[in-house]
Design a protein that fits this description.
Distance between the termini: 15 Å
Number of strands: 16
Mean pLDDT: 92
Structural class: alpha+beta
Low-confidence stretches: none
Largest sheet: 6 strands, antiparallel
Strand content: 25-35%
Radius of gyration: 19 Å
Helix content: 25-40%
CATH topology of the largest domain: Tumour Suppressor Smad4
Oligomer: single chain
Order of helices and strands: EHEHEHEHHEEEHHEEEEHEEEEE
Shape: globular
Length: about 300
């Protein structure tokens, strides 16, 4: 790397992981500086500020010390503005599923050491939603989206100890209260696919969400395809019984589950249904979902 190529922005979400990022960013900044990087550090004050920092970045590398939600926001800015920048994720959130799929060490200090010692660049696909929003891991509606909403609310209330898989499992069980299936119609690659009541509908890029749930273990981040996981009507008991299997990717033989691959998916529903991406709300149905191959350059 030239000296200019070793300029970097260390962008920190101070509330990620209940303050985990704020506790570790100075150590990471020192690590980078000691290894020869010219480091500019910025602690974001909110999502708008984080977006502005990404959009106006002058350095060729952004080290982002944050969780999946902030990674999604940064990726959205980079892809929509066609920025020529490397994004180096450092896991500091509650789930860190995107980093896990990339094989990035769980501890952000270990993760930055990995970049310093054995840097690897790769291009990954992203998910486009309604030609407006970008997601990295998955887009979902149904019981999963309701559970993600409960988990999101728990985090917003300042809970600092519940995270990852326990947070999602608790949220999924809470989501069962008052839950009933929802009607949707789906087209895949511009061909009608199904119209039915569903419990869960996920479009996955990375194959993992919810703090380690392997919702589509065949997914790859660089294959130019998305996986669709659709689950029809099941009983609440069946849902509870099957939930643990998802952490091991052992749920795919469920008789109510369909798994397909596609590049383009359209979802319609009689009423607007809240949609989540990478653990955060991004809009409502109807949805036009597409893969954008090799749209984001990652440094790990």
């Amino acid at each position: 790397m030239s000296n200019q190529e070793r300029d970097c922005l260390l962008l920190v979400n101070p509330i990620s992981g209940g303050g985990k990022a704020l506790k570790k960013y100075q150590h990471i900044a020192n690590q980078l500086a000691e290894s020869g990087y010219q480091v500019r550090t910025h602690i974001s004050v909110n999502e708008t500020d984080l977006m502005k920092q990404v959009q106006t970045v002058i350095e060729p590398i952004i080290f982002l010390l944050a969780g999946d939600g902030s990674l999604r926001v940064a990726a959205e800015v980079i892809v929509k503005n066609n920025l020529k920048v490397l994004l180096a994720p450092l896991p500091a959130g509650r789930g860190n599923d995107f980093c896990a799929v990339l094989g990035i060490p769980k501890d952000p200090i270990a993760a930055v050491n990995h970049v310093i010692q054995t840097p690897t660049e790769l291009s990954v696909d992203v998910i486009s939603v309604n030609d407006e929003r970008i997601a990295l891991g998955a887009v979902s509606i149904g019981i999963d989206a309701k559970a993600a909403g409960i988990a999101f609310d728990i985090q917003q209330q300042g809970n600092t100890w519940l995270r990852g898989a326990p947070l999602y499992v608790l949220s999924a069980l809470k989501a069962l209260r008052g839950w009933s299936s929802i009607p949707i119609s789906v087209s895949i690659d511009q061909q009608p696919f199904q119209s039915q009541n569903i419990w869960l509908f996920v479009v996955s890029n990375s194959g993992q969400f919810g703090g380690g749930m392997k919702i589509s273990p065949t997914s790859k981040l660089n294959d130019g395809k998305l996986e669709i996981i659709s689950v029809g009507e099941v009983t609440k008991f069946d849902f509870i019984k099957t939930l643990p299997k998802v952490f091991f990717g052992k749920h795919l033989n469920h008789p109510k589950l369909e798994l397909l691959s596609a590049a383009e998916i359209a979802v319609n529903s009689p009423r607007a249904i809240l949609t989540f991406a990478d653990g955060e709300p991004i809009g409502h149905t109807p949805l036009s979902i597409k893969v954008i191959p090799a749209a984001l350059k990652i440094l790990k």
